[in-house]
Write a structure and sequence with these properties.
The protein has two domains: 78 residues; 98 residues, Alpha-Beta Plaits (2-Layer Sandwich), CATH 3.30.70. The chain is 56% helix and 26% strand. The strands form two sheets. A four-stranded antiparallel β-sheet has the order 1-4-6-5, covered by helices on one side. The longest helix has 74 residues.
């Protein structure tokens, strides 16, 4: 059976249709593969961004922890472990010598109660594990020197609350104070 022009044209058209269909099918498969890869790239980019954000958050937490560690050391210095009364009295005496006042008398009393006198005069509970030492100190040396002494106490690393100051004849000042320590 000889091939006529019409049959040749039909065969060529059929082959072209088959090539187009196969090409379209292969192209669609490639499109699906590329789309799947793009989805994977998108997911990987989102995971990378989340990991970078988590790393930034961890760095910020590390910096915060470092600064809190410094603050904790400051608090530990402000609240010594144990009463350490001899060191406290040595500090108070050094401040007195620097400011030009002299001690007339010192009374120290430790308190088992977990309260402190607030600035309003009310007693306030202190945190668990924090105890207080009550001090009554009588000093002489003039008003300006007393101000220097109080400023020295304020600048002292150890926390000391001055609850009251009274003056008696002869320029004697009575200071009632509290300091704290942890056990």
């Amino acid at each position: 059976m000889p091939l006529t022009a019409r049959n040749k044209q039909l065969i060529v058209t059929g082959v072209m249709v088959v090539i187009i269909v196969v090409g379209a099918w292969l192209g669609f498969e490639q499109y699906k593969a590329v789309a799947a890869q793009q989805d994977k790239v998108t997911v990987a980019a989102e995971e990378l961004q989340a990991a970078e954000q988590e790393l930034a958050d961890l760095k910020e937490l590390s910096n915060t922890m470092d600064s809190m560690s410094v603050e904790l050391n400051n608090v530990r210095s402000s609240l010594p472990a144990g009463e350490d009364i001899s060191d406290l009295l040595a500090n108070l005496e050094a401040i007195a010598v620097y400011s030009g006042v002299t001690f007339d008398s010192i009374s120290v009393a430790t308190s088992g109660e977990q309260t402190a006198i607030a600035t309003t005069g009310e007693e306030v509970a202190t945190p668990a594990g924090v105890n207080r030492i009550n001090l009554a100190i009588s000093v002489t040396g003039g008003y300006q020197n007393l101000k220097k002494y109080l400023h020295g106490i304020e600048q002292n690393l150890r926390i000391i609350d001055v609850n009251s100051i009274s003056i008696s004849e002869g320029g004697v000042y009575l200071l009632n104070m509290q300091t704290y320590y942890v056990e």
